[in-house]
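Long-time lurker, first post. I've been practising inverse folding by hand and with some scripts of my own, and I keep getting stuck on stretches where the structure tokens seem ambiguous. Below is the full token string for one chain I'm working on. Before anyone asks, I'm not after the true native sequence, just a reasonable design that respects the backbone. If someone could post their per-position residues I'd love to compare against what I wrote down in my notebook.
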């Protein structure tokens, strides 16, 4: 897309990476006409608004990551390492995860076969907030009441010992695309005999 002559800029991201000499984080701006993007250090008023937004989004009512943070605190070492040793082995780890999921009805446990044709667990953890009981005004903007949903973390725990658990994230659009694809597969292969 060609860059337009007169940008209509909106906030695209808050709190982007900053350099060591900056006093405040970056704010990302994007043009609604041509998608031109720029990131600059927040001005003092933008920084004050960002701090208010952070406080609200990290509150118990608005934090969409509370369940995921509970999972990672219990079962992970860092961002991408699963703490299997704490539970003895992978079977003990999988059992502990499934027991944790039973306490959280919003978490879904299903299964698949791994690349060694062994049963494996798929854990679907939604990133959804409890929600505000009533609307809140934040920097001249009304934040509506109700829960917020960001997407779903998917954790796959293979049964075989030489395969490590892994995880990925599905935004709502990814979930819709995956569902459409799976339904297409189901429709196509409904016509043939299954083994």
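-- Answer (accepted) --
I ran through it position by position. Result:
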């Amino acid at each position: 897309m060609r860059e337009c002559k007169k940008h209509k800029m909106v906030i695209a991201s808050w709190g982007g990476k900053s350099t060591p000499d900056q006093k405040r984080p970056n704010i990302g701006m994007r043009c609604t006409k041509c998608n031109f993007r720029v990131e600059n250090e927040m001005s003092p008023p933008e920084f004050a608004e960002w701090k208010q937004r952070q406080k609200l989004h990290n509150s118990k009512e608005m934090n969409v990551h509370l369940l995921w943070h509970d999972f990672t605190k219990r079962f992970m070492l860092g961002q991408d390492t699963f703490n299997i040793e704490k539970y003895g082995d992978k079977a003990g780890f999988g059992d502990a995860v499934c027991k944790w999921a039973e306490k959280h009805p919003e978490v879904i446990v299903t299964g698949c076969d791994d690349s060694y044709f062994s049963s494996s667990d798929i854990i679907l953890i939604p990133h959804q907030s409890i929600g505000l009981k009533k609307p809140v005004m934040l920097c001249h903007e009304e934040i509506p009441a109700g829960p917020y949903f960001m997407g779903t973390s998917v954790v796959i725990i293979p049964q075989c010992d030489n395969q490590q658990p892994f995880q990925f994230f599905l935004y709502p659009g990814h979930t819709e695309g995956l569902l459409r694809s799976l339904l297409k597969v189901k429709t196509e292969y409904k016509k043939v005999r299954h083994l």
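A couple of notes from the structure itself: The first helix runs from residue 44 to 57. The helical segments are 44-57, 66-75, 90-102, 172-189. Happy to go over any region you disagree with.
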